[in-house]
User: What shape does this take?
Amino acid sequence: MVKDSFEIVGTTLADAFYIEEAIAEGGFGVVYRAEHAKFRAKVALKCLKIPSNMDSEREDSFIERFREEAEILFHLSAAIPEVVRPLHVDTFRRENGTIVPFMAMEWVEGDPLDTILVTREFDGKPMPTLLEAIEMLDPIAHALARAHHFQVPGGAIVSVTHCDLKPENIIITPAGGAVRAKILDYGIAKARELALQCAGRISSGEGTNPFTPSYGAPEQWVPKRYGQSGPWTDVWGLALTMVECLCGHPPIDGDMHAMMGTALDINRRPTPRSEGVDVSDEVEVVFNKAMRVDPRERYDDVEAFWTALQLATGLPSSFASRPAPKLELAIGASGIPPSDRPISSQPTLQAAEASLSSVPEVTAGGRKHVKFDLDVDVAMQPPKSTRLAKPPSPDDPAAPSRSPASRRETQALSGQLRLPLQLFAVAVACTIIDALASRFTGSGIALGPLRFRWIAAFFAGAAVLVVFLSFIRDDSDDA
Assistant: This one.
């Protein structure tokens, strides 16, 4: 029987939720079964454990931000049925004065995935096959992918990452002969992080971003080395969950040091074959990439990972189409080194025009980052209104006659100007990107020690130098 750590069984919270019993407890909270007094329906009520040494200012800040997290979760669950829907968010005080945030959520009939796996092993039944696991978790993959590119009210596109994906947070519920799956604890991980930050302390093994050690990605263990968490963190969580479905036990287990060592060991990844599961070479390669230590070497998001896994298994992709990739730049006060960004966010110098849209991001690794999406699909070409009309045909009587010498001179001049024009276009692109970044963030973009403005000046100077040398050479040839 689960202990009633908050001593609220038999009481009513928010004049609506009668607490019946505690049904689960973890390191960060207790889940209770409750009844909604107005609707006479069961709900799940999760209470978070936070330190008791908050002052009133920190409490007010925490409560407001906790409600903001719940608001995003509300909109997320309204658009994505696989995300468990929140019904109410509030706080209460215990007799000792400790503030307790809680969230009431819809009650889902079903069993956590980890319980299903343990029960199958206890009953002597085989673990799900790869095809069965893909079919079972396909709704979860799609839900995560939609959350990674989620449009909030107002039109902004944000990336909502779970960062604590594991079998315990996936509920499997058979409905009408079909298997349905739902994700728990969206937003709870951020709430935990917020509580620890407000309290101003770091517990042993938790770091600044609390996570479940046996499912923690390398960037959660060592954020200063591998950067912030993001969609690539959910790729790790889903891949590790898939491996556990196939082998029947957590691939990463043991004491804290052992689990950290396994997560960071570049020579042994927790793939299906390393856990004794027979899979094809193509499938093993997909899992190996999904659980690379360096997040820049993983799939950028869950959609890319899931598509690769289905194709490697011989299945058609359940994602109809993938949108054109977007360039992400993490821009800070002094610029973020390329080593702290995923591969997909490495900047290119081929964007002549770019549209920037600011996307809020949480504090990660002790640093605050602002993410921007740059649309680099715009080709370097003049506007449509300035494009030249189709040249007249040589056979057209109205076409002006040109001598061979004149054509050769024009071609020579065009060849001389091609390189400086390209260099100048790159300089203009760098200047535009840096100016827009400065406008939105107050600082320009830096690639290590190099500022984009310096790069722009270099290419502009190179263009002038090439033109100067070309004319000098022409004068020498004429002489």
User: Anything to note?
Assistant: The CA atoms of residues 9 and 19 lie 5 Å apart. Residues 109-322 form a domain with the Transferase(Phosphotransferase); domain 1 fold (CATH 1.10.510.10). The two ends are 99 Å apart (CA to CA). The chain has three domains: 1-107, 109-322, 327-386+406-478.
